[in-house]
Each structure stands twice: as structure tokens, then as C-alpha cells.
Design goal:
This protein is of the alpha+beta class and 276 residues long. The chain contains ten helices and nine strands. The protein has one domain: Naphthalene 1,2-dioxygenase Alpha Subunit, Chain A, domain 1. The structure holds fe (ii) ion.
């Protein structure tokens, strides 16, 4: 992965990512050789503000059972019926980066039998590479502030949310898989990806409907008079020394949303990096 910026004043990448680096590794550096992209890039335009998908991937664990109920019930995305995970932690490693983690022994992978068997097989290697923090949390979906998101559960995808004005977002999306995975696993990940998270995927369509309608609703006369309420789980955040992140209750929490928008507000108000 190559990150770049046009801003000569921007902090160096390791500093910008900070503690998010470990969480990125939990998606992309689980095996020797890292990852590879499967196929090409999906690219499409959605009628929504870019911040909706960015906050959704990093903080919105509570929409899953409502928004995706039909996809979960029919098992259309992966072929296997599962129940959404009930345990986990909302994690903010700082500087607006946000991650949703399930419990350390919870399934955080596309629930396809061959993918789950592969995950069991590679677990010792993954544990060795990622260390003891993996015994505390299992990161499944997140956003590197501001607009780069990644997902491991349901599908394996990373994407950039490119703003095309206040109410339009162009998605650049890729599927990825461990480079060292056998061909049948790469194919299973590709199929799970197309079914769940692509312009025609069940989960992706559900999500896009929310983002588009939220954007439209926020433009209304009455909505504009009121502040958006993101107080869910307020007061439950704590800094967790072992996770090296702010942590809060799983699912029913907007702790990560608050971290994301706090950073956004800081950067929008600051005259320079030095003043952030
Ligand atoms: Fe979703």
C-alpha cells in the first residue's frame, strides 16, 4: 500500500497512523507476504456525503441487525446463516481512526466453511505476527481517518471514499486476500465479496440506502435547525492501556463516531498542522 499527500506540512505516515498501525496489520499483515488484490477495482458513485460511509465502517455496529436482517436471514451473501456477534469493543486508537472489534474468540471472517477452516489453520501464524493484543480483540472493520476503510468479516474489502461534493461520493473498492492463501480460498473470498460488498452486493446495497437517505434527511429544513445527536453510550469510554486506544461498549455506542467527528472538527478549525 502506498500512501501519499500533497500537503508538505503533513506529519509523517507512522506518526499520522500512530497506534492505528497495529489495527491495520490485523487486516493486512496477518501472514508472511501480506495481501494481494483479487481482480480489479469496483468504482461507482453514491448520492451521499463521504462521512456517512467513513463513520459507518468505523463505528456503526448497531445498524447491522436492522439494516442487514434480510441478507443475514437469507444467507445470500455467504451461503451460511449466522447470528451477528454479541461481544466486542469499539476502539479509537487516536487521531480520528476508528475500529470495530468483536471478541477475541468470535468469528471475524466471512462465514463460509472453507474460509473458516483456513482461518483455524493459519491462526498460530497470525497470533505469532500480531502478538498478545490479538488475545483481547478481533478487529473486523474500521476507518483510517478520514476516508480509507477496510473490512474482514462478511467480505474482505478496502476502499477509499472520494468526496465529489457535499452529497456525492465516489467509491474505489478492492477485494483482498492473504497472498499465501491457496487458490480455492482466494476464489471463496472473491465470491463472498461480490455477493456482500460490491455495487450489487446485498450488504453494500443496504448500507448505501442508509447513507443516501441520511444525506437527504440532513438537508431538510427541520434537520438543519437541530444538532445531530451522537450521545449513545456517552460516558462509557475509557482509555485502555492494553489496547492502546479509547475503548467502549460493543454495538450500542457512538463513542467512535464522537472520536471521528471530534478530529474532523479539529482539523476543519485549525489554521495549520502546528495548531492541531
Ligand atoms: Fe452495513
Amino acid at each position: 500500500m502506498i500512501f501519499a499527500t500533497f500537503d508538505p506540512e503533513a506529519p509523517p505516515l507512522p506518526e499520522y497512523l500512530g497506534e492505528m498501525t497495529w489495527y491495520l496489520d490485523a487486516f493486512f499483515d496477518r501472514r508472511e507476504g501480506g495481501i494481494e488484490v483479487i481482480g480489479g477495482m469496483h468504482r461507482w458513485v453514491m448520492p451521499c456525503n463521504w462521512k456517512f460511509p467513513a463513520e459507518n465502517f468505523g463505528g456503526d455496529a448497531y445498524h447491522v441487525q436492522w439494516t442487514h436482517l434480510s441478507a443475514i436471514k437469507t444467507s445470500f451473501s455467504t451461503g451460511v446463516v449466522t447470528k451477528p456477534n454479541a461481544t466486542g469493543t469499539m476502539v479509537s486508537p487516536g487521531q480520528g481512526h476508528i475500529v470495530i472489534c468483536v471478541g477475541p474468540t468470535d468469528v471475524g471472517d466471512p462465514p463460509v466453511p472453507e474460509i473458516l477452516a483456513y482461518e483455524r489453520e493459519i491462526r498460530p501464524e497470525v497470533e505469532k505476527r500480531l502478538g498478545s493484543r490479538l488475545g483481547l480483540v478481533n478487529p473486523i472493520v474500521g476507518t483510517v481517518f478520514p476516508n480509507f476503510s477496510m473490512l474482514r468479516a462478511t467480505s474482505r474489502t478496502f476502499r477509499v471514499w472520494q468526496p465529489r461534493g457535499p452529497d456525492k461520493t465516489e467509491v474505489w473498492s478492492w477485494f483482498y486476500v492473504d497472498k499465501a492463501a491457496p487458490p480455492e480460498i482466494k476464489e471463496a473470498v472473491r465470491v463472498a465479496g461480490v455477493r456482500g460488498f460490491s455495487p450489487s452486493g446485498t450488504f453494500e446495497q443496504d448500507d448505501m440506502d442508509n447513507w443516501q437517505e441520511c444525506t437527504r434527511t440532513c438537508r431538510g429544513v427541520v434537520s438543519r435547525r437541530l444538532s445531530l445527536n451522537t450521545a449513545m453510550g456517552l460516558g462509557h469510554e475509557r482509555y485502555d492501556e492494553d489496547l492502546k486506544a479509547w475503548a467502549s461498549d460493543f454495538r450500542i455506542s457512538e463513542s467512535n463516531h464522537r472520536q471521528f467527528y471530534r478530529r474532523w472538527a479539529q482539523l476543519m478549525a485549525a489554521e495549520s498542522w502546528a495548531k492541531v
